[in-house]
Amino acid sequence: MRELFATLPDDPPPLPPGYLDGVLTRARRSVRRRRLGVASVWVVAVLVLAVLIVPGVQGSVQPAAPSTRPSLPDRLAGYSLLTSTVAKAPPGRAIALYGYGNGETFNMFQSLVVGADGNTYRRVDASEQRNRPSALLAPDGTHVLLGDDRGATDNLILEDLTTGGRRSLPLGEAVGVRLLAWSPDGGHVAYSAAPLSNSGEFGSVNVVEAEVARTGTLWLLDLATGRRTEVPTIKPAWTAAFAPDSRRLAVQVGQTAHLIDLDGREYGKVQIPAGRELAAEVGWSPDGRFLATEQWITDGPFNGTTGGDTGRHGTFLWKVGDVDFLPVTDAFTPPAAVQDVVQLLGWRSADTMVVATGDSAGHLSLTEVQLGTGARRTLSRFDTGRTCELGMQNCEVFDLHLAAGLLPELTVRDAGRPQRGPWPTPVNVVVAVAVLGAGYLLWRRTRR
């Protein structure tokens, strides 16, 4: 080191003009960058807390209070991964329950309810936990009843849309179940049940519906007491619809609709033409005079050749047919058939139906139809744009139900902005990781 310093000149060379000012300027810039980096880290931390905490606060989302009259948005919102769940943010009573999504490339389906008192959308988490089985929506829109399409089950799940709570309804033994109809007064549910030849899980294939359709016995469940009544003479039960008084119901076996009371006593029959089925859940007209029938989706469930898509639960809604009427007694003359209908969904009055209709492009609408005149009014349309499977596929609708008891007073509201509730936890995690990564990269950049 001494030798090295010995080689240095006695007088150091002069500094370039402005050198000291430049050094001071760069020093101040370095301090600013360092301070900016620290501030950025704090901003990122605040954003992460906001993402994780604010959307997840359940107390900030209250169920919609019942309005004077229930309503339906004039356009149903598209698919969104940001839709919260019933348990996390109860939506209040619902006007519609449906399956939504696509599985062309990979399965991206949601079981959704739409609020009757606000523009709320929620995923039915109990349904997703059972791999989205077919379900029923209560006539007053306050509950959803779920079975299990993937295997035998020993209970039904009743999910409360106003509180997010659940109630288990025991079935006595593990059986395959098809839910058929909910009485207008909300007190009883009709379902078909049968032991399954394979007691294990069936993966992603719904074979429960097909097997129970061929071998299932009718049961009546009292929701208040949990009491179950078997009707062994009604077998195999396929579709059912309660009378407007909730004390009687029609159940289809083969091509016959058996008319029974809540004790299982039969008092009449109505023959159904070949190739047709009793309209599920809402096939008995509000005046009690007629049964509404629809065309089979396939060849029907009773020939032993159909698979898991025998009914409307497991298929997308697209096939256009008609609704025809059969008199309950010979004293009544049925109205003319209603053409160009995908599915009967309920009644506004004895001479006004609400149906699902489709156009040539496959777009589904909810339509009000006047019997006799055939006059139509579109109530709402589904968004079937390419918003499913990350924008690669059109969204499809299946297992569609309306709150039948709310339809007589139903109004139509402007759709407005969808209220999807707090973000689901997986979305929060993804966003938090992305924000933390961006913050880390920014901090590394400012350090350099």
From TrEMBL:
Q: Which organism is it from?
A: Micromonospora violae
For this protein, the parts annotated as crossing the membrane are 36-57, 423-443
Q: Recite the UniProt keywords alphabetically.
A: Membrane, Transmembrane, Transmembrane helix
SUPFAM superfamilies, per database record: DPP6 N-terminal domain-like (SSF82171)
Provide the protein name.
WD40 repeat protein
Superkingdom classification of source: Bacteria
